[in-house]
Amino acid sequence: MTPFARKKQQLYLVLSGIFVVNALLAEIIGVKIFSVDALLGLPGNLTAGVLIWPVVFVTTDIINEYFGKAGVLRISYLTVGLILYSFVVILATTHLPPAAFWLDVNKLDAEGRPFNVDFAYRSIFRQGLGIIAGSITAFLIGQVLDATVFQMIRRLTGGRYVWLRATGSTLVSQLVDSFVVLYVAFYLFGNWSFDQVLSVANTNYWYKFAAAILLTPIIYLAHFLIDRYLGREETVELQQEAAADVSV
């Protein structure tokens, strides 16, 4: 293996690791809905998972830049499989009989009120099953859309305007993702009203919109670091290969 091939492999491995761990974490913590008003004094509510989805957006665009649409979809399909595996394991643990001492030592909350820790565990993680159905549906749609729009803008601009293809593809894909995940997870599988879905989806999308804009410098920083790591000529070659790869 040549030094360039080894560096290319290592780069894809690192980017894929960042992508997978943040996507998986977002799925797990996404069961919590928090008040933006209580936190920042701004109207609306957000799912906790949305806080780290911007990392997934940025990583998606970087992978697309250097490894093409096929590179993005390869790691996306793998991530879906790992998320499904994680939730099968988590679901199985919710059916395990709780130890009596564990229930006893956790029978009161911090304010001395009766508390069933096993019920809380089951309630939190089983709620995630609806989210996993919605997230996987939205994730796959969003990733295919993101990768496709990214390459389309790249071709239309002749490879210029990194910020436009990175931010533009994210804004389009997340418009769909923000609604689909909540509709499936909390409307079809949950107990939300359609108005609640629209309200939280709207807040989620505008957060992602702002994050996509604010994180644009990170895209340029990543390009700079990768160029230094791979070498300028090798980077150009890799980007040309990625631009030419329109396969799924």
From TrEMBL:
Coiled coil: none annotated. It is a multi-pass membrane protein. It is found in: Cell membrane. GO terms for cellular component: plasma membrane. GO terms for molecular function: transmembrane transporter activity. NCBIfam families: queuosine precursor transporter. This is Probable queuosine precursor transporter. It comes from Hymenobacter roseosalivarius DSM 11622.
